[in-house]
Amino acid sequence: MSRPLRRYLGVDFMGVATISASRVDLGRALARVTKAPFKPHQKLRLLRTYLLPKLTYGLVFGRLMAGSLQELDREVRSAVRSWLKFPPGVPSAYIHAPVKSGGLGIVSLSASIPSLRRQRLLALRGSSWGVARAAADLDFVRQQLAWCDRATPSAPKPSSSAEFAAALHESVDGKELRQCSESLISSQWVDWALEGIGARDYRHFHAVRVASLPTAVRCTRGSRGTTLPLCRACRSRSEHLYHVVQQCPRTHRGRILRHDAVAKQIAGALSSSGWDVERERLYHMPSDQGKKPNIVAVKPNQSCIILDVQVVNGSLDMEQTWRAKIRKYDTNDLRQAVSELKGVAPNNIRVMAATLSWRGVWCGKSATELRELGISVGVLRGITTRVLLGSYLNWWSFYRGTSLHPSLPPPPSSSSLIPRAGVG
Ligand SMILES: [Zn+2]
Q1: How far is the CA of 96 from the centre of ligand 1 (A)?
Q2: Hey, is 17 helix, strand or coil?
Q3: By its UniProt entry, which PANTHER family does this protein fall under (predicted)?
């Protein structure tokens, strides 16, 4: 006669022994979430805060094999990729790296469960209960600890959040996200309840953040030689996403619009905080042709700021870029010119820069300074998503544009201009 199956705190027991965690039907739960009429960020939040934590206890205390954890991870990644419509090639590290490091913050079960089991077993030795301390020396516990060692992913596979972040930042697509943790504002849109972001925009923002938008260079990965395909519009550089969004003459107008939108948002926030704001005035100076900072703002207590906006390349040290922009405007001539016009002492003028990357990553010091001026986190978060939108629209307009380098033949039909993701 078989012994009855008992379920206690989510773990199945047969007699006194745990049995395989067979009731973990993650695939069915993921399918239900996939079919539910939720936005992608709501599905991600369900997975992160409900589905995976619900599984953790049973996986730590129940019996299972390392291969089953990897299978569960594959199911999770597959669901996330479908929710965000990722093309092939988006690194798994983007899914498992912490949100503040530029990832999606989805826990990897194969990386976390063996470690949690090991912690539980090692805690037996420190228990105040003598029976638990005695159990720590049982063969069963030793076997379980050996299983944890075998099941923990070994290098080069990441086995912790920090290692997933490092793997993301070492990847071609993720290296521009390595300064993400300098300011939490860079990533808050990913998991905050930002109901204002539509499903399509949310997916587009991730495509910009992880640089998965199709370009000629991306779509020929693995199938070309060492020569990268040149930009179809200007023929001056390889058709990387960075070139399309940030450098190509075809998207120049889009970059101006994005820059002006950021300057407008900052100016509006300063006005709301009591600053008297002036935009785009040209200051004539004897030493050069003059300077036109994006914003000069004065407060009634006679403090004054000169502020310029820049949306930059995130693969460089953004603090250096930020300092270079400040140096450009922090000149005696400009201070004197602003001082005379605004009636503020030159040494009471602060020169600043609003610096973030085209993939929505803030220079930490720039974000901190803007917060000190009274600009809210909500406004800075809005600037992050505005930049992501602008970068996406640059890519969109690039593939619908027809302006070409004079030496190039006329374009084929417009529908064939947009490369398809994953086409080799
Ligand atoms: Zn170009």
Answers
A1: 33
A2: strand
A3: 115 KDA PROTEIN IN TYPE-1 RETROTRANSPOSABLE ELEMENT R1DM-LIKE PROTEIN-RELATED-RELATED (PTHR37557), CCHC-TYPE DOMAIN-CONTAINING PROTEIN (PTHR37557:SF4)
Q: Judge whether 389 lies within some domain.
A: no
Domain holding 344, by residue range, is: 253-377
- Residue 182's nearest CA partner among 105, 93, 100, 104 is 100
Q: How far is the CA of 219 from the centre of ligand 1 (A)?
A: 16
Pick out the chain residues at pLDDT < 70: 1-24, 66, 155, 192-195, 302, 401-424
The verdict on residue 244 lying in a domain is no
Q: Is residue 232 part of a domain?
A: no
C-alpha 215 – ligand 1 centre gap (Å): 11
> What is the C-alpha separation between 151 and 157, in angstroms, rounded?
12
Q: How far is the CA of 184 from the centre of ligand 1 (A)?
A: 33
In DSSP terms, 276 is beta-bridged to: 298
Residue 132 lies in a domain: yes
C-alpha 8 to ligand 1 mean position (Å) = 62
Going from the Cα of 316 to the center of ligand 1, the distance in angstroms, rounded, reads: 21
What's the 149 CA to ligand 1 centre distance in angstroms?
50
The 10s digit of each residue's pLDDT in 102-116 is 999 999 998 888 888
- CA 24 from centre of chain: 30
Q: Which residues are placed with Cβ below 5 angstroms of ligand 1, an ion?
A: 231, 233-234, 248
Tell me, what amino acid is at 130? G
